[in-house]
């Protein structure tokens, strides 16, 4: 995609249409375009992954000409924006976020933020997921996200995008003056155990569960997104939809691609 004046931008998220991150993102994007559309869940849908609403109707509440609250998942929002709500002109760019919390390493598989960008990539639209890393009971450093979103978006707008690719951006959990720089990274992988079911008993003595988030230490390696986060750097990770383990194909062929019996 080459940079164009006044690109049409579709903004989606998983924290909900009234979340501070999506309001900030729209504010920043309006520095580059006045053709900005927001199609986002009517409430938080964190952890929705790449899910679709297949078994119940999706309700949409139009708040004004270009803002729509959707009772559905981030992927639903991306689909509705592209096919229905933006009219007959597709977006030039899909932005998802800015998420409150990290989308690093294996988070991508759970993330509604990343999944909206994945859906955009599947539809052939240049797509970027943006997240502000944050920990519970600590301040959210929105000024860091604001500054670096404005800095990197013009360069990303000018990229020549490869079909089936998207970009995952994470801003570090630190004040703006403590950011160590910007890194282009690969996806990391934490040790197992980030999410665990925790049993509880309600007031009627009926068991239920909460999914507890507790990221284990480890997984940071030179050049990956976890190391960038550790070092207070902005992480920009180019990603792709093709999840084939290419380095294993040759071995699998030796195991399974045998001559047919009687050949």
TrEMBL record:
It is an enzyme of class 3 (hydrolase). Binds 1 divalent metal cation per subunit. It catalyses: a ribonucleoside 5'-phosphate + H2O = a ribonucleoside + phosphate. Residues 9-190 form the Survival protein SurE-like phosphatase/nucleotidase domain. Its main location: cytoplasm. One of its GO terms (cellular component) is cytoplasm. HAMAP family: SurE. This is 5'-nucleotidase SurE. It comes from Sphingobium limneticum.
């Amino acid at each position: 995609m080459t940079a164009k004046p006044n690109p049409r931008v579709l903004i989606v998220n998983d924290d909900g249409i009234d979340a501070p991150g999506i309001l900030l993102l729209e504010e920043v994007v309006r520095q580059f375009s006045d053709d900005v559309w927001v199609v986002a869940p009517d409430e938080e849908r964190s952890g929705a992954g790449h899910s679709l609403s297949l078994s119940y109707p999706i309700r949409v509440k139009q708040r004004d000409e270009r803002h729509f609250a959707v009772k559905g998942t981030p992927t639903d929002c991306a689909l509705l924006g592209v096919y229905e709500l933006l009219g007959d002109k597709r977006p030039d760019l899909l932005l998802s976020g800015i998420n409150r919390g990290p989308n690093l390493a294996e988070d991508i598989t759970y993330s509604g933020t990343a999944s909206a960008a994945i859906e955009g990539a599947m539809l052939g639209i240049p797509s970027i997921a943006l997240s502000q890393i944050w920990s519970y009971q600590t301040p959210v450093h929105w000024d860091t996200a604001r500054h670096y979103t404005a800095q990197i978006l013009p360069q990303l707008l000018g990229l020549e995008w490869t079909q089936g690719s998207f970009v995952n951006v994470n801003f570090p959990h630190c004040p703006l003056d403590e950011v160590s720089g910007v890194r282009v990274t690969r996806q990391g992988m934490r040790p197992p155990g980030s999410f665990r079911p925790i049993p509880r008993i309600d007031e009627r003595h009926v068991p239920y569960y909460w999914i507890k988030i507790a990221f284990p230490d480890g997984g940071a390696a030179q050049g990956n997104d976890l190391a960038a986060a550790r070092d207070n750097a902005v992480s920009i990770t180019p990603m792709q939809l093709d999840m084939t383990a290419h380095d294993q194909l040759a071995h699998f062929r030796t195991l399974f691609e045998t001559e047919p019996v009687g050949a």
